[in-house]
Amino acid sequence: MTDDPLLPFPAISTERLDLLPLRAEHAAEMAEVLGNPALHAFIGGEPSTPEDLAARYRRLVAGSPDPAERWLNWVIRLRAQACLTGTVQATVTGSTAEIAWVVGTPWQGRGIAREAARQLVGWLRTQPFRTQPVRTVIAHVHPDHHASAAVAAAAGLTATDEAHDGEVRWRLPLT
After folding, report:
1. Cα–Cα dist 175/38, whole Å
2. What's residue 40's pLDDT?
3. Hey, which CATH number is domain 12-22+70-173, 3.40.630.30, 3.60.140.10, 3.90.1170.50, 3.30.70.1560?
């Protein structure tokens, strides 16, 4: 991956948010952000300890062991409150980027996930990964998670008839 001109990938800003490249040092604050068990109703699992999250973040920051796959992970910082509120990520394989987002329960309903996901898709639209641009963005959303479906739609994705692990596949072709 050292030949990739986008390493390290940049911070991305929106009107209210800074998407900061993930670092292990974010784990303590993110453990609190992601600590509500209700947050895991659709994504599964349970809240991680700061230590477990730091170990996971170190693995993510190290990058995919598959040279054909890029892991791009950001924490979402709400600038006005100077606090982390969630994460947004893209896994780029070939010309496809699979995106995902999660926002802590205290910050849900404020448009943070929508704003971050839209900016991520816009950023992916302009990036030449290994000289091959992203041509398709996909996301997987639990069929009962209406808020995440709204985020996917706001980012320009459309629900398909395809399912993956019980989730609806959303897709956006980029031109």
Report:
1. 38
2. 85
3. 3.40.630.30
